[in-house]
Amino acid sequence: MTPAFAEPNAPSRPLHVVGADALDSFRESLPEAMRNWLAATGFEGALGDLRLIPAEDGTVGEAVVGFGTARTRRRTRFGIAKVAASLPAGAWHLEGSLGVAEKTEIALGWLLAQYRFDYYRPGAKVPQPALLKCPEGCDAALLTAMAEGEFLTRDLINTPAADLGPAELEATLCDLADRFVADVTVIRGEDLLARNFPMIHAVGRASPRAPRLLDMRWGEKGPLVTLVGKGVCFDTGGLNIKPSSGMSLMKKDMGGAATVMGLALMVMRLNLPLRLRVLIPAVENVISGNALKPKDILTSRKGLTVEVNDTDAEGRLVLADALAYATEEASDLVISMATLTGAARVAVGPDLAPYYSDDARMVTALEGGAQAGFDPVWRMPFHDAYESVIEPGIADLDNAPGFGFAGSVTAALFLRRFVDNPRYMHFDIYGHTPSDAPARPKGGVGQGARALLLALPAMLGL
């Protein structure tokens, strides 16, 4: 599925966007019949409230949609996008006193609302879409790339684990590399031990679907950005097995990998002047006779020993080896993304992407990108005072300390031990929308990718 705007030269109908505070002046500008129609139907300019206006021949000639108040717009991102499904098919263009940021939010939301996940419903009826012309002042190529990358992320997260294991994740990355002339190398199975990736191997060895490390490189000039995404294609919890309720969404445990792949698509589609590396440790965390056991002690690629106090805290183990490998090469930025802890969800809920960074320039750039990309993030602390919590005494590190507090913080501190680069940023995302929202249907969702895309030029001085 490819998101699309209407052709610039296509005949189109007007969609009037009217805020509640501008409703009186808008009414005064209308022909009497249209003014009476809006009054008779109770239109008050509420966000997303739609009225279809008939033409003289009885067809729909134009439409009016409410833009609400500043407060309602703050509470509901992409509030206009929900009307796309209610408009007749064909091309539409925006009318109204809108700033570029407002038009950008509407246009991006319109594209994101085109997403459908119908692969398992081949008979599902797909309605003809109402397409929006890209509004003046908006960057059509940028918005389309953002939506296309988001669609890839959603598809990957939504696909059941039976159809998306480590091999399928590898195939998807290879397809992406083929599209954009990138190179992929893969280290699989027992070769992980021979090449010194012991923790990736330990987590994935119990599955008949061999664990692997995926490594994609794109671009020949410019600063190097390394993205590391957690690719746990299903997480039973291992021998510390999850209850059934805890496993119900574990097909999304590769949401970090899905998000960095979506971000990579955006970067490559826009041909940004940088070099890109994507590292994905792809595993299944399941149970068999050779599964990783509680209290096992692993020696990581970096040489740090790790006591495994919970086999369900496996994401940080596979990321640790990948991050150590990433920072053996000089990168201008290292960014990890993972559906890592429930503690992050307890702290900020499913709509915010928590992130960690000690680099002020990166933080400032990301906060600006989050606002411009309508992709909310929230900074969390690398709190040094909790370092001792992840030191068990019997080994260098503990993968699941019994501290009882700050689970996302201690996981981030664990990962930071494997990164020899001060320009490091970690995201502890959720990757799932629990209920339908404008432009975000229930299911897989990318978090932080648009913010990062827009922040990269400032982070890198491009």
TrEMBL record:
GO process terms (BP): proteolysis
Keyword Manganese on entry: yes
Domain of life (superkingdom): Bacteria
Positions of the Cytosol aminopeptidase domain: 152-452
Keyword Hydrolase assigned: yes
InterPro entries named in the record: Leucine_aapep/pepB, Macro_dom-like, Peptidase_M17_C, Peptidase_M17_N_1
Pfam families tied to this protein: Peptidase_M17 (PF00883), Peptidase_M17_N_1 (PF21337)
Residue span(s) of domain M17 aminopeptidase N-terminal: 14-124
An annotated GO cellular component: cytoplasm
Family matches, as SUPFAM superfamilies: Macro domain-like, Zn-dependent exopeptidases
Keywords: Aminopeptidase, Hydrolase, Manganese, Protease
One GO molecular-function entry: metalloaminopeptidase activity
Family as reported in the entry's similarity comment: Belongs to the peptidase M17 family.
Name of this chain's protein: Leucyl aminopeptidase family protein
